[in-house]
Design brief:
Length: about 475
C-alpha cells in the first residue's frame, strides 16, 4: 500500500544560515571585528592577529548587499521560516559599549521586513559563533562573568527593537560545542591546551545564566516570544554490545544532554554534579543564579548531520571526522565527501530521545549535505547543478522525520543548513556547498557572485508546496 503522510498544517519549512558565513561587509556601517574575521581557515588552525585577504568570510556571498534578491529566491521556494543570526559586532562593535550602532540595527530591521513581506518568519540566533573580537581578547570570552552583562545589554537591545518583527529566537548556536572548540563557540582566547576544566565549565555556566536571562527578558518584553536553546544532536551508539561500551556511550552522551538538561529543567543534573566533583571542578554561582536558571526554554532546536560510536577498547578509539563533535566511525554507514557519516535513521532516533526526555517541542534548524557541486550549462544557456545526491540525502532524512512525527514527536519545523551556498564554519571553504542556490564564488576568491537555482531548489519547492506529501510519491 502506498504510504500517504503530510506534515502538520502549521509546519515551518525553511532553511538556515549564519551572519558570519554569508553577509560579508565585515567592517561596513560601523561593524566591529568578530572572532570570525581572524579565522581564515575556520577551526582548522589558530586565529590570526588581524583579518587577512584569504578569509572567505570577509566577503561571504555578499548577502549584506544582496539580501533582497536572496530572500525573494527563498520565497520562491515557499519558505515559511528563515533562520539567520544577528552579528553581535554589528550592534555593539566592541561588545562592551553602552550604546548600540544604529546602522547595524537598521540592517536587521530591513532584513526582517523583507522576510515578513513574503510571509517568512525570521528565526534569529542571538549568538552564532561570532563573539565580538574585543570581548574575546580583552575579557577571554565567556570565562569572564562580565560577559553575562554584555550579552544582557545586547539581548535587551535586539528584543526591544525587533519585538514586533521576530517571534522565534535561539540563545546560542550549538552551545555544547564549547567543550571541543572553546574559541569559536565561547570566544575563549586561552589556547585549548592551556585551558583548565575549571575555566571551561565556569564559562559554560556563564552561558547558561546568560541564556536563561534571555528567556526571562524576552518573555517580559513580548509574552508571545518563543525562545529556544540550540545544541548539536549526535546519537551515539555502542560499537559492540559489550556493557563497557554501553557505559562509555552513556558517559559520552551525558556531555551533550547536560546542555539541554539545564536549559529545559533549570538545574544541573546529578550525573554532571558527579562529573564536576570527580574532576575537581567547583562552579561559582553568583547570588541569584539558581533562580535565573529556572527560566527555561520554550523549545529545543538542534543541528543533525551524523551519528557516531563509542567504545571502551583503547585500540578502537580512533576518532573519525565530524561536524564539531567527533566519535568512533560506524562500520555500517557511508560517509560524505568530508567524512561525515550519513545516518537518516539517527535523526528519528534522536528526535524520539529528545522528546521522550523533555516533552518539549523540537525544531530541526540544521540538516544537510556538504558536497562538491558542479555548475553546468544547458543548451538553452540555463545554468544549474544536478544535485540528485543532495535530494536523496534530504529526502531520506525527511522520511525519518515523518516517522518520528508519527511516533508522537512534536516538531515545529525543519530548516536545512546553508539553504544558499555560504562559507563553511569548520573549513572556511566555499567548495563545501549545502545550498539549493548555487553562488558563483570560489575558494580562490574568483567568481561573479551570481545566483543559480539547483535541481534541489525545485525539489524542495515541491516538498513545501505539498507539505511533505511529495516525499512519498
Amino acid at each position: 500500500m502506498k504510504q500517504t503522510f503530510t506534515f502538520p498544517a502549521d509546519f515551518l519549512w525553511g532553511g538556515s544560515v549564519s551572519a558570519n558565513q554569508l553577509e560579508g561587509a565585515y567592517l561596513e556601517d560601523g561593524k566591529g571585528l568578530s572572532i570570525q574575521d581572524v579565522m581564515p581557515n575556520g577551526i582548522m588552525t589558530p586565529p590570526t592577529a588581524e583579518p587577512t585577504d584569504d578569509n572567505m568570510k570577509l566577503i561571504g556571498i555578499d548577502f549584506y548587499h544582496r539580501y533582497k534578491d536572496d530572500i525573494k529566491l527563498l520565497a520562491e521556494m515557499g519558505f515559511k521560516v528563515f533562520r539567520t543570526s544577528i552579528a553581535w559586532s554589528r550592534i555593539f562593535p566592541k561588545g562592551d559599549e553602552l550604546e548600540p550602532n544604529e546602522k547595524g540595527l537598521q540592517f536587521y530591521d530591513d532584513l526582517f521586513d523583507e522576510c515578513r513581506k513574503y510571509g517568512i518568519e525570521p528565526l534569529v540566533t542571538i549568538s552564532h559563533y561570532e563573539t565580538p573580537l574585543h570581548l574575546s581578547r580583552e575579557y577571554d570570552g565567556w570565562i569572564n562573568r562580565k560577559m553575562v552583562g554584555f550579552y544582557e545589554r545586547y539581548v535587551r537591545t535586539i528584543f526591544t527593537r525587533y519585538k514586533d518583527k521576530v517571534k522565534y529566537w535561539l540563545t546560542f548556536n550549538e552551545i555544547n560545542s564549547i567543550l571541543e572548540h572553546p574559541f569559536i563557540s565561547g570566544g575563549i582566547s586561552t589556547p585549548k591546551d592551556q585551558l583548565t576544566k575549571q575555566e571551561l565549565y565556569q564559562a559554560v555556566h556563564h552561558e547558561f545564566v546568560a541564556s536563561a536571562l534571555a528567556v526571562k527578558i524576552g518573555h517580559e518584553i513580548n509574552s508571545n516570544f518563543k525562545i529556544g536553546c540550540m545544541v548539536i544532536a549526535m546519537p551515539i551508539y555502542p560499537l559492540t554490545p559489550d556493557p563497557d561500551d554501553v557505559i562509555r556511550v552513556m558517559e559520552a552522551d551525558h556531555q551533550n544532554t547536560f546542555f539541554a538538561d539545564v536549559h529545559v529543567r533549570g538545574h544541573y543534573p546529578g550525573y554532571m554534579k558527579r562529573y564536576l566533583r570527580e574532576n575537581g571542578i567547583t562552579i561559582h554561582f553568583e547570588p541569584g543564579d539558581e533562580e535565573i536558571l529556572t527560566h527555561t526554554v520554550d523549545f529545543i532546536s538542534f543541528s543533525y548531520y551524523q551519528s557516531s560510536c563509542e567504545t571502551a577498547d583503547p585500540a578502537k578509539q580512533i576518532k573519525g571526522e565530524g561536524n564539531l563533535i567527533g566519535g568512533v566511525p560506524n562500520p555500517h554507514l557511508k560517509a560524505s565527501d568530508w567524512g561525515w557519516q550519513i545516518d537518516p535513521q539517527g535523526l528519528r532516533y534522536i528526535m524520539n530521545a529528545f522528546y521522550d526526555r523533555y516533552q518539549k517541542p523540537l525544531f530541526i534548524v540544521e540538516n544537510g549535505l556538504g558536497a562538491l557541486d558542479d555548475l553546468i550549462t544547458y543548451a538553452n544557456g540555463e545554468k544549474t547543478v544536478e544535485d540528485d545526491y543532495r535530494i536523496d540525502y534530504l529526502k531520506q532524512h525527511l522520511i525519518q522525520v515523518a516517522e518520528a512525527i508519527q511516533d508522537g514527536v512534536e516538531l515545529m519545523g525543519y530548516a536545512t543548513w546553508g539553504c544558499i551556498d555560504l562559507v563553511s564554519a569548520t573549513t572556511a571553504q566555499l567548495k563545501k556547498r549545502y545550498g539549493f542556490i548555487y553562488v558563483d564564488r570560489h575558494d580562490d576568491g574568483s567568481g561573479t557572485l551570481e545566483r543559480y537555482r539547483k535541481k534541489s531548489f525545485y525539489w524542495y519547492q515541491d516538498v513545501i508546496q505539498t507539505n511533505g506529501g511529495s516525499l512519498f510519491e
